[in-house]
Design goal:
The complex is a heterodimer of chains A (133) and B (149). By secondary structure, chain A is mainly β. Chain A has one domain: Immunoglobulin-like, CATH 2.60.40. In chain A, strands 1, 2, 5, 6 and 8 form a five-stranded mixed beta sheet that branches. Chain A is elongated and about 80 Å long. Chain A starts with a strand and ends in a 15-residue tail after the last strand. Chain B has 149 residues and is mostly beta strands. Chain B has two domains: 42 residues, no CATH class; 89 residues, Sandwich (Immunoglobulin-like), CATH 2.60.40.790. Chain B contains one helix and nine strands; from the N terminus they run H-E-E-E-E-E-E-E-E-E. A four-stranded antiparallel beta sheet of chain B has the order 1-7-5-4. In chain B, strand 4 and strand 5 form a beta hairpin. The longest helix of chain B has 16 residues. Chain B is elongated. The N terminus of chain B is likely disordered. The chains are: A mainly beta (133), B mainly beta (149).
Chain lengths: 133, 149
Amino acid sequence: MVDSAVAKKTAEAEVAQAERTRSGRAYRPNVDIIENKEELLVVADMPGVSSSSIDVKFENGSLEIHGRVPVRQTPETRYLLREYGVGDFYRSFQVSEAIDASRITAEYADGVLTLHLPKIEAVKPRKIAIKML
Amino acid sequence: MFARLGEGGNPIQQLRGEVDRLLGDWVEGLAPLVGSGLFGSSAFPALNVWEDEGNLYAEAETPGLKMEDIEILVSGRELTVKGQRREGDGTDEVYHRRERGTGPFSRVIRLPVDVDSGRVEATLASGVLTLKLPKAEAARLRKIQVKCL
């Protein structure tokens, strides 16, 4: 999987490089990508998102995650310490593995998005029985 | 008094905690003291702190944590947020990318005013931890009416 560079969450955050239709800053969620026999798992830290405002798109091997984060504090807030910014999460990946797009599922709990990308049958490792003659 | 950070931890963490605490005592006002754990070089969790007249508020992003994984200690002007993020226990897995930190973490910050530790409220929603720390009576800004004579 190749990953497009997007802003880091903390401190000197930059703006997402992938072009987006909405203006404003987007942060790059930290992810784990885990492969097992059945599927690829993409686990992304996206705190403060409500599950109804997460968009996941998978098209031509390109996976896009976008989570909208509502503003939590007013602009007049008197900050004493400000170590991270609050804003949308965005990240995209090129998935080289063959994925069954119709069976992709996603869940969101405790600020973590988990995507299940099932592999297509043909690419699952198969044990080939060898016949003794 | 609460258990000091680093107790039972490794000596380097203990030393860091001690040094940061000394610095924190020295630097006026709000000084981040220590962050430790397996979350890389930057302190985890990152904190935003703000105030209004009666309260201090602290917010941290703690995705993947449940309330029972987090411990919050308040003593006078010291706020400690510590806990542990568990690792997945899957077998037969290959990690292609591993950016999400796991393991224990601990963060101590020094607050600019005394807070009423008995009335601290903590909420955790969608991986965002919010603390409301009422300022101690003595620390509240009081408006003094000036009488014209």
